[in-house]
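Handoff note, outgoing to incoming analyst
You'll be picking up this chain. Sequence as last confirmed:
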Amino acid sequence: MLILGIDDAGRGPVIGPMIIAGCLIDSKYERELKNLGVKDSKQLTQKRREFLFEKIKELSIKYDFVIILPEEIDSSNKNKINLNELEAIKMAEVINKINDGKERIKVIIDCPSVSINKWKDYLKTKVENLSNLEINAEHKADVNYVEVSAASIIAKCIREKEMDKLREIYGEEIGSGYTSDPKTCTFLESNFKKHKNKGIFRKSWSTWKETCSKTKQQKLF
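Most recent structure output, in case you need it:
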């Protein structure tokens, strides 16, 4: 059986892109992937992820990804397309790129929405060819299915490469891009005005709005 795992990376950061990745694997390689230590990317170091990414590329039939820049996330938000819907649109895009319609494929997606069935139905409206696909969406699929774990590793590695490009331009002080990172928060507070038109910040994020609001209040007082 062919299984297509799909997952995201960078859903929550205030800086940098979100990545959606898909990895098509023959189920006969599941055991080998598990023995290599393929699991949810959040449970691995970056060095280990990069090592496994190369192994996944060797064992997968095909993989692909899309990069969603902050400007597209903000634009979608402005057009009343929420993040869950945007992920569905982009995950369908990955499915369309990988699926050639020739063989039966079981698609397993780490679902970003609380309403799994409603979200899955929306995703299906964006898929070009459903005839050979069995689509499943679950919570914690990145933990429970090695194919989705593989997709999560690909997505995370691609995002790190994109963040490395930003660090070359803006310096290491940009941090991970996540608001849980003190370096990122300091960078945002110190540079949000200077770099606000550079396309690196998600301006529809509450963190961005709160930083702008806090700075305005400080100026008033």
